[in-house]
């Protein structure tokens, strides 16, 4: 599959995900405030922005410091708030998001080299190791079973 087509599909998916986030934000604004969980995270502007960045740019070599800077919070305040609201630390969330995205891409027949590149892994080998560690099976086996 040509890379331009993959990029176009990625942009379309991103637009859909951003639209979904906006719809959820509007719905959240109409609800009673939540103290924790996804609704609280999306209702908190800096954390919602960080989640949007992680979803939009999963290939970026994010650090907690980078995310905190992007949303204008100190590293410690950002990390504590993110963990409290989302239920896990930012880098753990990013890994889970990357793996979730990888499973979808594997089901779509996208090459492991392309997946590794689009999700921020330095090599296909690094991606395979991370996938096996997180999902419990190698990506090639996962692809065959789905």
TrEMBL record:
Gene3D superfamilies: Homeodomain-like (1.10.10.60). Pfam families: HTH_18 (PF12833). InterPro entries: Homeodomain-like_sf, HTH_AraC, HTH_AraC-typ_CS. Keywords: DNA-binding, Transcription, Transcription regulation. Residues 48-145 form the HTH araC/xylS-type domain. This is HTH araC/xylS-type domain-containing protein. The lineage of its organism: Bacteria, Bacillati, Chloroflexota, Ktedonobacteria, Ktedonobacterales.
């Amino acid at each position: 599959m040509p890379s331009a087509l993959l990029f176009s599909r990625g942009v379309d998916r991103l637009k859909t995900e951003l639209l979904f986030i906006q719809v959820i934000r509007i719905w959240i604004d109409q609800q009673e405030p939540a103290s924790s969980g996804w609704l609280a995270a999306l209702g908190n502007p800096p954390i919602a922005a960080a989640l949007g960045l992680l979803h939009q740019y999963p290939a970026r070599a994010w650090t907690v410091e980078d995310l905190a800077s992007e949303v204008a919070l100190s590293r410690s305040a950002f990390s504590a708030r993110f963990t409290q609201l989302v239920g896990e630390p930012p880098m753990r969330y990013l890994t889970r998001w990357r793996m979730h995205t990888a499973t979808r891409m594997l089901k779509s027949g996208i090459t492991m080299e392309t997946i590794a590149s689009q999700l921020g892994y330095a090599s296909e080998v690094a991606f395979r190791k991370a996938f096996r560690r997180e999902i419990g099976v190698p990506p090639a086996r996962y692809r065959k079973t789905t």
